[in-house]
Amino acid sequence: MKLDLASIDPKALGKVAVLMGGHSAEREVSLMSGQGVLDALTSQGVDAHAFDPAERSLDELRRDGFDRCFIALHGRFGEDGTVQGALELLHVPYTGSGVMASAIAMDKIMTKRIWRFEGLPTPDWRLVSSADETRAALAALGAPMIVKPSREGSTIGLTKVTSVEQCDAAFELAARCDPLVLCEEFIEGDETTCPVLGEGAAAEALPLIRIVAPEGNYDYQNKYFTDVTQYHCPSGLPEAEEREIQRIVVQAYRTLGCSGWGRADVMIRKKDRKPFLLEMNTSPGMTGHSLVPMSARAAGISYEQLCLWLVAQASLKL
């Protein structure tokens, strides 16, 4: 994929707020993402400034003359349509998906319902509201089973359940993060992720990344704070298999109405190589361990070019 960078005048972008931090459980990661984006934009001559919604009112965006926002917030109150709605009311253009797509993609259960309706492959699941229902879900879905909050990211509150004795603790951990708890069929096989740039018919997938975590445990610590996880980009998968996953991911992205950019997580079932969509991230990480910049590099796009292109795409969606 080639980005049209020649037509972007950094000075014409005006005063840019990089929204980072915020109130979510992913605040620490968001601050790292935001600092990376801020450094990249300023290196390209953009008048960019850090803006933490946990410390400043969004009203100050208009009062202080900001012309657009780069959303580097992750999780709730940043990736779930709430900030997007506020920016629409303030008439401040922003990066990424609009209110509806952000809200739907943040809710894994709603996302899976839409994908299932559209005939897209996603693991079987149950929505549960108690430990008893979690045990019933395990009986229906089989072990191992994933228990996680429906509206969190970065594997926060997630448990891989292998026995009925783990169900109570797994439910309680997820429910502390979100009253909507998702029990999901575990797909054994290759773990991959695929970024998408653009909107509608112009949306394109970037190269696939195959993730190999120690003992298959791609948790919060191994995502952001260790160097033991292996990332393969090029993925090393057969070309036809990668192209098919990219096709499914772009379809999943368009189905949710996403725009700007996103990243879908996909498991490839070992026994038959069938891909299964897990979730769509509409404000992906931009840290030193993050996957969209890694995939972009494989496509010949630098971190700085990616940030500049994304902020140039900032718009109002309503």
From TrEMBL:
Binding residues for Mg(2+) 2: E279, N281
Pfam family, one: Dala_Dala_lig_C
Biological pathway: Cell wall biogenesis; peptidoglycan biosynthesis
Annotated source species: Caldimonas thermodepolymerans
Function: Cell wall formation.
Cofactor comment: Binds 2 magnesium or manganese ions per subunit.
Reactions this protein catalyses: 2 D-alanine + ATP = D-alanyl-D-alanine + ADP + phosphate + H(+)
SMART domains xrefs: GARS_A
GO cellular component term of the entry, any: cytosol
Co-factor requirement: Mn(2+); Mg(2+)
Family: Belongs to the D-alanine--D-alanine ligase family.
PANTHER family reported for this sequence: D-ALANINE--D-ALANINE LIGASE, D-ALANINE--D-ALANINE LIGASE B
Keywords for the protein's UniProt record, in alphabetical order: ATP-binding, Cell shape, Cell wall biogenesis/degradation, Cytoplasm, Ligase, Magnesium, Manganese, Metal-binding, Nucleotide-binding, Peptidoglycan synthesis
Subcellular location: Cytoplasm
Entry protein name: D-alanine--D-alanine ligase
